[in-house]
Records
---
Amino acid sequence: MIRVGIAGATGYTGLELLRICSHHPEVEIIWATSDSYSGIELGNYCPAWQGRTCMVLEKPDMEEMAREVDVVFLGLPHGVSMDYVPAIFPHAKVIDLGADFRIQNLETYEKYYGLHHKLPTVVREAVYGLPEIYRQKIKTAQIIANPGCYPTSIIIPLYPLLKNQIIQPEIIADSKSGVTGAGKKPTEVTHFCEIDGSFKAYKIGEHRHQPEIQEQLSSAYGGSVDIVFTPHLLPIKRGILSTIYVQGDPSVSEKEMWKIIENFYHNEPWVRVYPLGQFPELKWVLGSNFCDIGLKKVDKKHFVIVSAIDNLTKGASGQAVQNMNILFGVDERVGLPSSVLYP
Ligand SMILES: NC(=O)C1=CN([C@@H]2O[C@H](COP(=O)(O)OP(=O)(O)OC[C@H]3O[C@@H](n4cnc5c(N)ncnc54)[C@H](OP(=O)(O)O)[C@@H]3O)[C@@H](O)[C@H]2O)C=CC1
Ligand SMILES: CC(=O)N[C@@H](CCC(=O)OP(=O)(O)O)C(=O)O
């Protein structure tokens, strides 16, 4: 059994990790932490857990707790994860769901996150946890930087196209997210009355996922890629749908472009490339670990790609468990949800 610790278990990604890990046949959840609710039974904090576990939430004390587990999931705010990593490192592997180890360029990280990075050498050691692309490196990693939710929905469809240099390195992506993407603490921008019945773009031209996406796409292309990324907030709880606009040579057909993505992901258990003429919808992925992709050629040179994920599953905790499976030599499908909650 893989002994697992979950830091930040009362957060949205932490609760999703508990949901997934509790059904995973190879996992034993050893502990779960909360900063504010330590000492409280999980079933009292979240009654959905009544009758399923007697686990008590613990204050995070990594010096001691890391010794009890094989891997620690960090579902913590940006900047907090890096405080815990040094204590975990000698004892257990780390899968960080936050952004502290995703961006290799530290100046960029510090600019977009407004934080001073305390562990530059660990950033260089960290492996970007997109299994479909970095599987080999993930196998032997000590620390995995689980990708951001928006980046997951954008990098997966674009990677094969940029790797093959079949599209121009100038891309536009509009992404729409449910509100769980903002974490459990409501703000003036995210509470019910602000969201319900409305829809808006936000952080136009300045979202912190832009440099993460750009770094990964440029590495795929082997040169600089420009991306205009605009996130939107949907009045729903879960899910991200990204609409991505790319340009190819007029001689490239819809079928050829589709074939490049389809061939790349043909044997991947968690990426589904839809037949031409079909497009993903959130309802076909919510609650599952799938990333679904559809594509259409709309004029001589423009192609529109649509991708859909559940931000808490393939966009966070499902992907983290997929990474854990790779780390411990378990089949990547094991323990991960493939059924959606539909209708
Ligand atoms: N939500 C999403 O869709 C995604 C989130 N992420 C990233 O995953 C991480 C967690 O996100 P999410 O679950 O949404 O966040 P939440 O705000 O929902 O939860 C944060 C968790 O961290 C705990 N916490 C807060 N401050 C501290 C601290 N100083 N020390 C220890 N524990 C602390 C909280 O504990 P308590 O409140 O009990 O004290 C809570 O359990 C973030 O880095 C986020 O950016 C990544 C991909 C998708
Ligand atoms: C809707 C919403 O607010 N989304 C978040 C991103 C969510 C996310 O998962 O970002 P990280 O993985 O980098 O934490 C935002 O725009 O900041």
---
Amino acid sequence: MGRSLEVDDPLAQAIAPPPNESPEDREARLSREREAKRISDDIDQALRDERAALKRRKKPVKVLLLGQSESGKSTTLKNFQLTYARKAWQEERDSWRAVVQLNLLRSVNTILDILQREMTGSGYISSPTSSDSEDEDEQRDATHLQFTEMHRLLKLRLAPLRRVQKDLERRLGSGAEEPTDAPPGMTTEAAPQEFYVRSSTGWKSTLEKLKSRNSTGSRDDSHTREWREREAEESNAIIAGCRDDMRSLWHDPTIRQMLARRKLRLEDSAGFFLDDVERVAAIDYSPSDDDVVRARLRTMGVQEYRFVFDKGSEAGQEWLMYDVGGTRTLRQAWASYFDDVNAIIFLAPINCFDEKLAEDRRVNRLEDSFLLWKAVCSSKLLAKTQLVLFLNKCDLLDKKLRSGVQVKDYVPSFGDRSNTLGTVAKYMRTKFRDMSKQYSPESRPIYTHLTSVIDTKATALTLGAVREGILRNHLKGASIL
Ligand SMILES: Nc1nc2c(ncn2[C@@H]2O[C@H](COP(=O)(O)OP(=O)(O)OP(=O)(O)O)[C@@H](O)[C@H]2O)c(=O)[nH]1
Ligand SMILES: [Mg+2]
């Protein structure tokens, strides 16, 4: 462009080489100019990179939580909220009271159902958490249980809790919707009586039903709301009135014997609050952080959660997390979220090597996790997606192994390795990693964590590392790092 300038143009004069320039001076000048151009180009490139990085940063980080039902997806999400969205968490916490109450009543009513059958001799019902080969043992010993007048009285006095459970289900808007996942010919009797929600906006809307909606889904007027509040108070009063009897039931040696014979490990099942009945059934009960993390509310559909980090280098970065329902019939919905997803946190509960799926009692839960993991790894759509694997429920695995359950009885390839947490976890980790190596369309690192996501302190540390890793990957290629 300089060439086309007129000789008397001030710019042309300013940039023209000095007159009488020696060849050495000319070479030195050209070298300086080349260096200046290189620096200028570098700056231009840096600016372009920064713009690209900012654009990338603005794009939300999308994370999908996957895994079978009860693997701990929603619990992991709760940990994210607890750590990174404190304010929303605190606003929502009290709404979980009804869910915790429902969880408690589910355990109590399960015990009462079994007690009823044992006392009237109407025989065996199978249990949701019992494992394969337990059925025959139970009936064999049932006749030796010594029930007394006290058991009959407890049964009678705790009877109103059935209605309270129904009321709570109705108030949560899910009473009419029991899981119907059992395949034809299979009974749903054994499936846990869970409470779940259909919602695309998260728990908040669900829990708000407790306050502002009636069972037909229409908005309440103030009169109805008042009536429903009274109903809630009534439920609270009945639960509080039954507190001592619930405690007696749970601590009664014959009842414990009855449950042990059925190998019903209520204390290891989802949403177990009987050990906290004193506190949870109190009239002024308000859920703690831990209670909310442990409360069980089954996810239906796909729920989207938005987090915006407000601190440090990630300020303003938006994250979208998707929590899906893990039961079989809900898995078709997953694929439509695969597009554009940055990372998947896959949860595999490794304690359940001896358990069956609630929705299909023919399928071993660990086997189901393997198949799901294989499907995720081999998906072409997800070939470039970062995979983070949580081998979850390590606390329950440890408990189970200590109680003497042998992995090799259910997983023959485990062989004669030692039946301890460390060895079993290592074995599972290798199994999952080998599968990802074998089935991933392109090689990729797999980030594996041994977790117990009800342990909020440990999980906060894990999530910190996971978050860093995902963000690093998200920004990869941009010079801002
Ligand atoms: N002891 C123990 N309990 C856990 C752990 N992870 C989850 N839970 C409990 O297991 C239950 C099920 O967990 P959720 O997070 O609801 O499972 P989910 O994967 O969201 O299940 P769906 O919504 O049905 O797909 C909850 O009551 C949790 O508190 C764990 O590591 N240890
Ligand atoms: Mg869930």
